[in-house]
Design goal:
221 residues; alpha/beta; 7-stranded mixed beta sheet; 3-stranded antiparallel beta sheet; 10 strands; globular; binds S-adenosylmethionine
């Protein structure tokens, strides 16, 4: 099927159905040390900024970024995850949750000078990454700080890859608690691919590689 969008069409449905069980992904014992580090590192980078969060999900990262940020505008396409996010213990006035499409970014508020996207990059087709980076940077102020967090593939901890398509995108079969299965696009880009993707818009970019995660931090021109 020739899908004009840069991610897979059933992704919203999959995450909506997974909403209540989503945060189990943050309970994997082997990942706790790195998560603890990331929970301190990410808010520090975005301290004092007006942050746009893309595909915020249940607000797991929003709750840690909000206290450090000036304000965080967190968007997701799924009402089911936003409902959970709105219940996070975040001080009044620090976060705004909105329904927003990460592909078009239509309607996201202007004036942000920081951005965060957790585990969204890996769901974007390789052919859609340039457009995502360009779209995001167009919505932000010059000099904005952008933080992208995603997974490294770790054989002993990650869901196995089920196939690779002609463009090189990789997929996983994901099973929900009710037994329903979804094929989900999940890419594991190399450091070189990441650097190439942000070069057109970034003044400075660097990667922080852990065992289970990678962080890419860049400043917009
Ligand atoms: C892997 S989860 C990441 C959630 C959150 N950022 C985190 O790190 O915990 C991916 C999120 O993308 C959202 N999503 C799927 N398609 C989307 C789209 N077109 N626009 C915005 N969000 C989308 C899903 O609802 C889901 O919450």
């Amino acid at each position: 099927m020739n899908d004009p969008r840069s991610t897979t069409p059933h992704l919203e449905k999959y995450y909506s159905k997974r909403a209540a069980e989503y945060e189990q992904v943050y309970e994997k014992p082997e990942r706790q040390r790195e998560l603890e580090w990331l929970r301190r590192r990410i808010p520090e980078i975005l301290r004092g900024r007006r942050v746009l969060e893309v595909a915020c999900g249940t607000g797991y990262w929003t709750q840690y970024i909000a206290p450090a940020a000036h304000h965080i505008y967190a968007g997701d396409i799924s009402e089911a995850v936003l409902e959970i996010a709105r219940d996070k213990p975040i001080a009044k006035g620090k976060a705004t949750f909105v329904k927003a499409d990460a592909v078009t970014l239509d309607g996201v508020p202007p004036g942000c000078n920081g951005a965060f996207a957790g585990f969204w990059w890996s769901h974007v087709k390789k052919s859609g990454i340039t457009q995502f980076v360009a779209n995001l940077s167009r919505r932000l102020e010059p000099g904005s700080m952008v933080v992208i967090l995603d997974n490294q593939f770790a054989q002993w901890s990650s869901t196995p890859l089920s196939r690779r398509d002609a463009e090189g995108n990789t997929y996983q079969m994901r099973k929900l608690a009710n037994g329903e299965e979804f094929e989900v696009l999940k890419n594991f880009p190399t450091a070189a691919e990441l650097a190439d993707a942000v070069r057109p818009v970034a003044r400075e970019a660097h990667m922080e590689s852990l065992t289970y995660y990678w962080l890419m931090v860049f400043t917009l021109k």
